[in-house]
Amino acid sequence: MTEGYIHSLESLGTVDGPGIRFVVFTQGCPLRCQYCHNPDTWKLKAGTKVSTSTLIKKIIKIKPYLEGAGGGLTISGGEPTMQPEFTLDLLKKAKAENLHTALDTSGFVEIEQFKKFLAYLDLVLIDIKSFNNSIHQELTGVSNQKTLAVIELLEKAKKPYWVRQVIVPQITDQIAEIKKLAKFLSQKKYLEKVELLPYHELGKHKWEKLGLEYKLAAVKPPSPKKMAKLNALFENYRIKIA
After folding, report:
1. What is the spatial distance between Cα 223 and Cα 52, in angstroms, rounded to a whole number?
2. Beta carbons of 127 and 104 less than 8 angstroms apart
3. Residue 198 and residue 204 in contact, taking contact as beta carbons nearer than 8 Å
4. How confident is the model at residue 242 (pLDDT cuts 50, 70, 90)?
5. Any residues with CB less than 8 A from the CB of 167 and at least 6 apart, and which?
6. 84: which of 12, 73, 76, 223 lies 20 to 30 Å off by Cα?
7. For residue range 49-88, what is the model confidence (pLDDT) as tens digits?
8. Which of 104, 173, 183 is nearest to 139 (CA)?
9. What is the DSSP string of 78-116?
10. What Cα–Cα distance (Å) separates residue 12 from each residue in 16, 19, 142?
11. The Radical SAM core domain covers which part of the protein (predicted)?
């Protein structure tokens, strides 16, 4: 029996992949993103221990709704690759049920480990916190090199993927850096679309509850005008924007 730690479940999710999806939010994350809205997912064993068999039974119960809406299973986090055996086994069980599968990841994972997931994935949602490595390290505590390597792997494996980036004013909203990301992605064949997500403060209270310093307390969400301007940079490269 394969077990792992989860943070929560969403049975009818609509923002973590195509259609309606059963979303498993795993526990544990190696990143420390300054804007993280779920810092309570960081510690692995702070979650609920559950088996993949139990989860797949829950998923099968609503399988007709998922399939009817063009959806499936998304494993998110936290960072699901922190629990590779658990994540891989759940993906295998989902594919055995002919479910569409997606993995939402920061890409901070060893390439050889990530390769093991590929045969059981239909889609990867990959978060590029910043294309600028220095900014990425300041914002998350880790380099973006593994993330970019995963993108190259997905291209080589001909695996469809979406790229997501949170737009944080004065940090990840720099026109020059966004242009570099757009140019980099414009050369990719298996990128389906890009999602620029406006920074929000919804997780601020969790930081306070956990006794953590929220360094972005003075930062406000980006304006619709700024978001439109950044989206246009990708459209100029004929990249689909969500």
Report:
1. 41
2. yes
3. no
4. confident
5. 173, 196, 197, 198, 199, 222, 226, 227, 230
6. 12
7. 999 999 999 999 999 999 999 999 999 999 999 999 999 9
8. 173
9. S-GGGSHHHHHHHHHHHHHTT-EEEEEE---S-HHHHHT
10. 10, 9, 32
11. 15-238
Taken in order of first residue, the domains within the chain and their CATH numbers are 3-235 (3.20.20.70)
pLDDT of residue 154: 98
Task: State the Cα–Cα distance between residues 65 and 81, nearest whole angstrom.
Answer: 27
Write down the residue that tokens 């929220």 correspond to.
Answer: 214
> Which whole-number Å values give the CA distances from 63 to 68, 86, 111, 230, in the listed order?
8, 21, 31, 37
Residue type, 190: Y
**DSSP annotation of 18:** S
Fill in the DSSP letter of residue 130.
Answer: -
Q: What is the mean pLDDT of the chain?
A: 96
Encoded tokens for 99: 């479910």
